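User: For my dataset I need records formatted as: sequence, then C-alpha coordinates, nothing else. Please produce one.
Assistant:
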Amino acid sequence: MTATSPSTAPPLGNQSTPIVWLQKNLFNSWFNSILTLVLGGILAWALFNLVSWAFTEALWEVIPANLPLYFAGRYPASEYWRLWLILGLISALAGLSWGVLARNVSFLFTRGSLIVLGVLAVIGVLTPTPPVYRLLIVGLIVICAGTAWLGRELARRLPNMAQWVSLAWALSFFVVLWLLAGGLGLDQVSANNWGGLLLTLILSVVSIVLSFPLGVILALGRQSSLPVVRWLSTIYIELVRGVPLIAILFMGQVMIPLFLPEGARPDRVLRAIVGLTLFTAAYLAESVRGGLQAIPRGQVEAARSLGLNAPLTMGFIVLPQALKIAIPAIVGQFISLFQDTTLVSIVGLLELLGISRSIISNPEFLGRHVEVYLFIGVIYWVLCYAMSIGSRKIEEKLHTGH
Protein backbone atom coordinates (compact mmCIF):
# COMPACT_ATOMS: atom_id res chain seq x y z
CA MET A 1 0.00 0.00 0.00
CA THR A 2 1.51 3.31 -1.03
CA ALA A 3 0.64 6.68 0.50
CA THR A 4 -0.21 9.49 -1.94
CA SER A 5 1.00 12.96 -1.05
CA PRO A 6 -1.25 15.94 -1.88
CA SER A 7 -0.34 17.77 -5.07
CA THR A 8 1.41 21.12 -4.60
CA ALA A 9 0.33 22.43 -8.02
CA PRO A 10 -2.06 25.40 -7.86
CA PRO A 11 -5.70 24.82 -8.88
CA LEU A 12 -6.46 25.38 -12.53
CA GLY A 13 -8.59 28.44 -11.70
CA ASN A 14 -5.67 30.12 -9.95
CA GLN A 15 -3.15 29.63 -12.75
CA SER A 16 -2.21 32.86 -14.52
CA THR A 17 -1.01 31.61 -17.89
CA PRO A 18 -2.27 33.50 -20.96
CA ILE A 19 -4.34 30.52 -22.12
CA VAL A 20 -6.07 30.23 -18.76
CA TRP A 21 -6.73 33.98 -18.72
CA LEU A 22 -8.26 33.82 -22.22
CA GLN A 23 -10.45 30.86 -21.27
CA LYS A 24 -11.60 32.57 -18.08
CA ASN A 25 -12.22 36.09 -19.41
CA LEU A 26 -12.97 35.86 -23.13
CA PHE A 27 -14.12 32.32 -23.97
CA ASN A 28 -15.95 31.20 -20.81
CA SER A 29 -19.26 30.68 -22.68
CA TRP A 30 -20.47 30.28 -26.27
CA PHE A 31 -22.00 33.78 -26.28
CA ASN A 32 -18.80 35.43 -24.97
CA SER A 33 -16.75 33.43 -27.47
CA ILE A 34 -18.81 34.72 -30.41
CA LEU A 35 -18.74 38.27 -28.98
CA THR A 36 -14.95 38.07 -28.58
CA LEU A 37 -14.47 36.86 -32.15
CA VAL A 38 -16.75 39.56 -33.62
CA LEU A 39 -15.23 42.43 -31.64
CA GLY A 40 -11.72 41.10 -32.22
CA GLY A 41 -12.39 41.00 -35.97
CA ILE A 42 -13.68 44.59 -35.96
CA LEU A 43 -10.70 45.83 -33.95
CA ALA A 44 -8.24 43.96 -36.18
CA TRP A 45 -9.88 45.42 -39.30
CA ALA A 46 -9.75 48.97 -37.87
CA LEU A 47 -6.14 48.54 -36.74
CA PHE A 48 -5.10 47.16 -40.13
CA ASN A 49 -6.66 50.09 -41.97
CA LEU A 50 -5.11 52.60 -39.54
CA VAL A 51 -1.63 51.12 -39.93
CA SER A 52 -2.06 50.87 -43.70
CA TRP A 53 -3.11 54.53 -43.89
CA ALA A 54 -0.29 55.64 -41.58
CA PHE A 55 2.42 53.99 -43.71
CA THR A 56 1.04 54.48 -47.23
CA GLU A 57 -1.23 57.54 -47.43
CA ALA A 58 -0.51 59.85 -44.49
CA LEU A 59 1.82 62.81 -45.08
CA TRP A 60 3.62 63.23 -41.77
CA GLU A 61 5.84 66.11 -42.94
CA VAL A 62 3.41 68.51 -41.27
CA ILE A 63 4.53 67.28 -37.82
CA PRO A 64 8.35 67.78 -37.92
CA ALA A 65 7.93 71.01 -39.91
CA ASN A 66 5.91 72.54 -37.05
CA LEU A 67 7.38 70.93 -33.91
CA PRO A 68 8.46 74.29 -32.40
CA LEU A 69 4.90 75.60 -32.82
CA TYR A 70 3.41 72.47 -31.25
CA PHE A 71 5.57 72.63 -28.17
CA ALA A 72 6.33 76.34 -27.64
CA GLY A 73 3.96 78.35 -29.82
CA ARG A 74 5.41 81.75 -30.70
CA TYR A 75 7.93 81.73 -27.87
CA PRO A 76 11.12 83.44 -29.18
CA ALA A 77 13.55 80.89 -30.61
CA SER A 78 16.48 82.78 -29.09
CA GLU A 79 15.04 82.05 -25.62
CA TYR A 80 14.52 78.31 -26.07
CA TRP A 81 17.38 77.71 -23.64
CA ARG A 82 14.99 78.77 -20.85
CA LEU A 83 12.57 76.01 -21.79
CA TRP A 84 15.37 73.42 -21.81
CA LEU A 85 16.52 74.70 -18.43
CA ILE A 86 12.97 74.30 -17.09
CA LEU A 87 12.83 70.74 -18.44
CA GLY A 88 16.15 70.01 -16.78
CA LEU A 89 14.88 71.36 -13.46
CA ILE A 90 11.68 69.31 -13.67
CA SER A 91 13.64 66.18 -14.64
CA ALA A 92 15.98 66.62 -11.67
CA LEU A 93 13.11 67.11 -9.22
CA ALA A 94 11.19 64.18 -10.72
CA GLY A 95 14.28 61.99 -10.31
CA LEU A 96 14.76 63.11 -6.69
CA SER A 97 11.11 62.38 -5.92
CA TRP A 98 11.43 58.96 -7.52
CA GLY A 99 14.51 58.20 -5.42
CA VAL A 100 12.86 59.37 -2.19
CA LEU A 101 9.77 57.24 -2.81
CA ALA A 102 11.95 54.21 -3.59
CA ARG A 103 14.33 54.64 -0.63
CA ASN A 104 13.10 51.46 1.07
CA VAL A 105 13.15 49.15 -1.95
CA SER A 106 16.13 47.01 -2.90
CA PHE A 107 16.03 47.72 -6.64
CA LEU A 108 15.61 51.30 -7.81
CA PHE A 109 15.77 50.58 -11.53
CA THR A 110 13.29 47.78 -12.04
CA ARG A 111 12.67 46.12 -15.38
CA GLY A 112 9.57 48.25 -15.97
CA SER A 113 11.32 51.53 -15.19
CA LEU A 114 14.29 50.62 -17.41
CA ILE A 115 11.91 49.78 -20.27
CA VAL A 116 10.19 53.16 -19.88
CA LEU A 117 13.52 55.02 -19.81
CA GLY A 118 14.72 53.05 -22.84
CA VAL A 119 11.56 53.81 -24.82
CA LEU A 120 11.86 57.51 -23.96
CA ALA A 121 15.51 57.51 -25.06
CA VAL A 122 14.62 55.84 -28.37
CA ILE A 123 11.82 58.36 -28.95
CA GLY A 124 14.25 61.19 -28.18
CA VAL A 125 16.84 59.86 -30.63
CA LEU A 126 14.25 59.31 -33.38
CA THR A 127 12.55 62.69 -32.91
CA PRO A 128 12.93 64.70 -36.16
CA THR A 129 14.80 67.60 -34.56
CA PRO A 130 18.37 68.93 -34.84
CA PRO A 131 21.01 66.60 -33.28
CA VAL A 132 21.65 68.97 -30.40
CA TYR A 133 18.01 68.72 -29.33
CA ARG A 134 18.19 64.91 -29.48
CA LEU A 135 21.22 64.98 -27.20
CA LEU A 136 19.37 67.29 -24.82
CA ILE A 137 16.40 64.90 -24.66
CA VAL A 138 18.71 61.98 -23.83
CA GLY A 139 20.45 64.23 -21.31
CA LEU A 140 17.13 64.89 -19.55
CA ILE A 141 16.62 61.13 -19.18
CA VAL A 142 20.13 60.73 -17.79
CA ILE A 143 19.50 63.57 -15.31
CA CYS A 144 16.28 61.93 -14.16
CA ALA A 145 17.97 58.54 -13.65
CA GLY A 146 21.02 60.08 -11.95
CA THR A 147 19.04 62.23 -9.54
CA ALA A 148 16.83 59.21 -8.76
CA TRP A 149 19.89 57.33 -7.49
CA LEU A 150 21.10 60.45 -5.66
CA GLY A 151 17.68 61.01 -4.10
CA ARG A 152 17.51 57.46 -2.76
CA GLU A 153 20.98 57.68 -1.22
CA LEU A 154 20.20 61.06 0.38
CA ALA A 155 16.82 59.87 1.65
CA ARG A 156 18.49 56.93 3.42
CA ARG A 157 20.80 59.33 5.25
CA LEU A 158 18.45 62.31 5.75
CA PRO A 159 15.06 61.41 7.28
CA ASN A 160 13.60 64.81 6.28
CA MET A 161 14.60 64.52 2.62
CA ALA A 162 10.96 64.15 1.49
CA GLN A 163 10.06 67.50 3.05
CA TRP A 164 12.98 69.20 1.34
CA VAL A 165 11.96 67.76 -2.02
CA SER A 166 8.39 69.00 -1.49
CA LEU A 167 9.76 72.46 -0.68
CA ALA A 168 11.91 72.35 -3.81
CA TRP A 169 8.83 71.55 -5.92
CA ALA A 170 7.01 74.54 -4.42
CA LEU A 171 9.93 76.88 -5.05
CA SER A 172 10.43 75.54 -8.56
CA PHE A 173 6.99 76.88 -9.48
CA PHE A 174 8.20 80.46 -9.05
CA VAL A 175 11.53 79.72 -10.76
CA VAL A 176 9.67 78.33 -13.78
CA LEU A 177 7.44 81.40 -13.99
CA TRP A 178 10.50 83.66 -13.77
CA LEU A 179 12.27 81.78 -16.55
CA LEU A 180 9.19 81.83 -18.76
CA ALA A 181 8.17 85.44 -18.30
CA GLY A 182 11.59 86.99 -17.73
CA GLY A 183 12.39 89.99 -15.59
CA LEU A 184 15.02 90.28 -12.83
CA GLY A 185 17.85 90.18 -15.34
CA LEU A 186 16.13 88.23 -18.11
CA ASP A 187 14.43 89.67 -21.17
CA GLN A 188 10.67 89.75 -20.72
CA VAL A 189 8.54 87.46 -22.88
CA SER A 190 4.86 88.39 -23.11
CA ALA A 191 2.35 85.71 -22.15
CA ASN A 192 0.68 86.32 -25.50
CA ASN A 193 3.69 84.56 -27.07
CA TRP A 194 3.16 81.41 -24.99
CA GLY A 195 1.41 78.74 -26.96
CA GLY A 196 1.16 75.09 -27.91
CA LEU A 197 1.86 72.40 -25.34
CA LEU A 198 3.69 74.95 -23.19
CA LEU A 199 0.53 77.01 -22.69
CA THR A 200 -1.60 73.89 -22.18
CA LEU A 201 0.66 72.67 -19.37
CA ILE A 202 0.83 76.11 -17.72
CA LEU A 203 -2.94 76.47 -17.73
CA SER A 204 -3.41 72.95 -16.38
CA VAL A 205 -0.75 72.94 -13.68
CA VAL A 206 -1.49 76.41 -12.30
CA SER A 207 -5.25 75.82 -12.33
CA ILE A 208 -4.85 72.46 -10.57
CA VAL A 209 -2.56 73.93 -7.91
CA LEU A 210 -4.97 76.81 -7.23
CA SER A 211 -8.28 74.96 -7.53
CA PHE A 212 -7.39 72.15 -5.09
CA PRO A 213 -7.14 74.26 -1.90
CA LEU A 214 -10.09 76.40 -3.02
CA GLY A 215 -12.19 73.29 -3.60
CA VAL A 216 -11.30 71.88 -0.18
CA ILE A 217 -12.21 75.19 1.48
CA LEU A 218 -15.55 75.27 -0.34
CA ALA A 219 -16.28 71.66 0.66
CA LEU A 220 -15.52 72.44 4.30
CA GLY A 221 -17.62 75.59 4.02
CA ARG A 222 -20.59 73.63 2.71
CA GLN A 223 -20.26 71.23 5.67
CA SER A 224 -19.87 74.08 8.16
CA SER A 225 -22.29 74.52 11.04
CA LEU A 226 -22.24 78.30 10.49
CA PRO A 227 -25.25 79.16 8.31
CA VAL A 228 -23.65 82.13 6.54
CA VAL A 229 -20.54 80.18 5.56
CA ARG A 230 -22.60 77.15 4.52
CA TRP A 231 -25.02 79.17 2.39
CA LEU A 232 -22.31 81.24 0.71
CA SER A 233 -20.37 78.09 -0.19
CA THR A 234 -23.52 76.38 -1.46
CA ILE A 235 -24.54 79.39 -3.55
CA TYR A 236 -21.09 79.62 -5.14
CA ILE A 237 -20.92 75.91 -5.93
CA GLU A 238 -24.41 75.69 -7.40
CA LEU A 239 -24.04 78.94 -9.32
CA VAL A 240 -20.75 77.98 -10.97
CA ARG A 241 -21.88 74.42 -11.69
CA GLY A 242 -24.93 75.79 -13.48
CA VAL A 243 -22.89 77.82 -15.97
CA PRO A 244 -20.93 76.28 -18.88
CA LEU A 245 -17.17 76.65 -18.74
CA ILE A 246 -17.04 78.49 -22.04
CA ALA A 247 -19.39 81.15 -20.60
CA ILE A 248 -17.07 81.61 -17.60
CA LEU A 249 -14.07 81.92 -19.93
CA PHE A 250 -15.83 84.57 -22.01
CA MET A 251 -16.85 86.46 -18.87
CA GLY A 252 -13.25 86.33 -17.65
CA GLN A 253 -11.95 87.70 -20.93
CA VAL A 254 -14.62 90.39 -21.32
CA MET A 255 -15.94 91.29 -17.85
CA ILE A 256 -12.79 91.33 -15.70
CA PRO A 257 -11.13 94.21 -17.65
CA LEU A 258 -14.27 96.32 -17.19
CA PHE A 259 -13.85 96.38 -13.39
CA LEU A 260 -10.13 97.18 -13.38
CA PRO A 261 -8.22 100.32 -14.37
CA GLU A 262 -6.31 100.37 -17.64
CA GLY A 263 -2.89 99.64 -16.18
CA ALA A 264 -4.04 96.90 -13.80
CA ARG A 265 -5.78 94.61 -16.27
CA PRO A 266 -4.33 91.08 -16.22
CA ASP A 267 -3.28 89.45 -19.47
CA ARG A 268 -5.47 86.90 -21.22
CA VAL A 269 -3.55 83.89 -19.88
CA LEU A 270 -4.12 84.97 -16.26
CA ARG A 271 -7.80 85.60 -16.97
CA ALA A 272 -8.14 82.11 -18.44
CA ILE A 273 -6.43 80.61 -15.36
CA VAL A 274 -8.88 82.45 -13.10
CA GLY A 275 -11.84 81.07 -15.06
CA LEU A 276 -10.53 77.50 -15.08
CA THR A 277 -9.70 77.67 -11.37
CA LEU A 278 -13.10 78.99 -10.29
CA PHE A 279 -14.93 76.45 -12.45
CA THR A 280 -12.87 73.43 -11.35
CA ALA A 281 -12.97 74.36 -7.66
CA ALA A 282 -16.78 74.13 -7.63
CA TYR A 283 -16.76 70.56 -8.98
CA LEU A 284 -13.79 69.60 -6.82
CA ALA A 285 -15.66 70.79 -3.73
CA GLU A 286 -18.44 68.30 -4.41
CA SER A 287 -15.94 65.45 -4.80
CA VAL A 288 -14.31 66.34 -1.48
CA ARG A 289 -17.73 66.71 0.17
CA GLY A 290 -18.53 63.15 -0.91
CA GLY A 291 -15.38 61.99 0.84
CA LEU A 292 -16.28 63.95 3.98
CA GLN A 293 -19.72 62.37 4.14
CA ALA A 294 -18.18 58.89 3.88
CA ILE A 295 -16.36 59.28 7.21
CA PRO A 296 -18.36 57.67 10.03
CA ARG A 297 -19.67 60.02 12.69
CA GLY A 298 -18.11 57.81 15.35
CA GLN A 299 -14.59 58.92 14.39
CA VAL A 300 -15.46 62.53 15.09
CA GLU A 301 -16.97 61.60 18.44
CA ALA A 302 -13.91 59.50 19.30
CA ALA A 303 -11.60 62.43 18.44
CA ARG A 304 -13.70 64.77 20.60
CA SER A 305 -13.55 62.30 23.48
CA LEU A 306 -9.73 62.41 23.24
CA GLY A 307 -9.79 66.18 23.68
CA LEU A 308 -9.27 67.29 20.10
CA ASN A 309 -11.10 70.44 19.11
CA ALA A 310 -12.98 70.88 15.83
CA PRO A 311 -10.06 72.19 13.69
CA LEU A 312 -7.70 69.45 14.88
CA THR A 313 -10.36 66.79 14.37
CA MET A 314 -10.98 67.99 10.85
CA GLY A 315 -7.29 68.49 9.98
CA PHE A 316 -5.84 65.29 11.44
CA ILE A 317 -8.73 62.79 11.48
CA VAL A 318 -11.51 63.55 8.98
CA LEU A 319 -9.95 65.47 6.08
CA PRO A 320 -7.01 63.08 5.37
CA GLN A 321 -9.40 60.13 5.17
CA ALA A 322 -11.88 62.09 3.05
CA LEU A 323 -9.20 63.10 0.56
CA LYS A 324 -7.96 59.52 0.38
CA ILE A 325 -11.46 58.30 -0.42
CA ALA A 326 -11.97 61.05 -3.01
CA ILE A 327 -8.69 60.46 -4.89
CA PRO A 328 -10.32 58.84 -7.97
CA ALA A 329 -12.89 61.65 -8.29
CA ILE A 330 -10.27 64.36 -7.71
CA VAL A 331 -7.88 62.96 -10.31
CA GLY A 332 -10.77 62.55 -12.73
CA GLN A 333 -11.54 66.24 -12.24
CA PHE A 334 -7.90 67.14 -12.91
CA ILE A 335 -7.93 65.09 -16.12
CA SER A 336 -11.12 66.86 -17.15
CA LEU A 337 -9.48 70.21 -16.43
CA PHE A 338 -6.50 69.28 -18.59
CA GLN A 339 -8.83 68.44 -21.47
CA ASP A 340 -10.97 71.55 -20.88
CA THR A 341 -7.96 73.77 -21.60
CA THR A 342 -8.76 73.22 -25.29
CA LEU A 343 -11.69 75.62 -24.82
CA VAL A 344 -9.37 78.58 -24.34
CA SER A 345 -8.66 78.48 -28.09
CA ILE A 346 -12.20 79.86 -28.54
CA VAL A 347 -11.22 83.00 -26.63
CA GLY A 348 -8.10 83.54 -28.73
CA LEU A 349 -5.38 81.66 -26.83
CA LEU A 350 -3.32 79.33 -29.02
CA GLU A 351 -2.81 76.30 -26.81
CA LEU A 352 -2.16 72.89 -28.33
CA LEU A 353 -5.49 72.62 -30.14
CA GLY A 354 -5.49 76.27 -31.16
CA ILE A 355 -1.98 76.06 -32.59
CA SER A 356 -3.02 72.93 -34.50
CA ARG A 357 -5.91 74.81 -36.08
CA SER A 358 -3.57 77.59 -37.14
CA ILE A 359 -1.24 75.03 -38.74
CA ILE A 360 -4.09 73.42 -40.65
CA SER A 361 -5.17 76.82 -41.96
CA ASN A 362 -1.71 77.30 -43.47
CA PRO A 363 -2.09 76.82 -47.27
CA GLU A 364 1.05 74.69 -47.26
CA PHE A 365 -0.61 72.11 -45.01
CA LEU A 366 -4.22 72.14 -46.25
CA GLY A 367 -5.88 68.74 -45.94
CA ARG A 368 -3.49 67.49 -43.24
CA HIS A 369 -6.06 67.72 -40.44
CA VAL A 370 -6.14 63.95 -39.80
CA GLU A 371 -2.38 63.75 -39.22
CA VAL A 372 -2.43 66.86 -37.03
CA TYR A 373 -5.37 65.82 -34.86
CA LEU A 374 -4.01 62.28 -34.52
CA PHE A 375 -0.67 63.66 -33.32
CA ILE A 376 -2.13 65.95 -30.65
CA GLY A 377 -4.59 63.20 -29.69
CA VAL A 378 -1.64 60.94 -28.87
CA ILE A 379 -0.10 63.73 -26.75
CA TYR A 380 -3.34 64.23 -24.81
CA TRP A 381 -3.75 60.47 -24.30
CA VAL A 382 -0.19 60.00 -23.02
CA LEU A 383 -0.49 62.84 -20.50
CA CYS A 384 -3.98 61.83 -19.32
CA TYR A 385 -2.94 58.18 -19.00
CA ALA A 386 0.13 59.23 -17.01
CA MET A 387 -2.14 61.07 -14.58
CA SER A 388 -4.35 58.00 -14.32
CA ILE A 389 -1.34 55.76 -13.57
CA GLY A 390 -0.16 58.24 -10.94
CA SER A 391 -3.60 58.13 -9.33
CA ARG A 392 -3.54 54.33 -9.15
CA LYS A 393 -0.04 54.35 -7.63
CA ILE A 394 -1.15 56.82 -4.96
CA GLU A 395 -4.19 54.66 -4.18
CA GLU A 396 -1.99 51.58 -3.85
CA LYS A 397 0.44 53.49 -1.64
CA LEU A 398 -2.33 54.70 0.65
CA HIS A 399 -4.21 51.36 0.63
CA THR A 400 -7.49 53.00 -0.24
CA GLY A 401 -9.10 49.60 -0.70
CA HIS A 402 -9.11 49.05 3.08
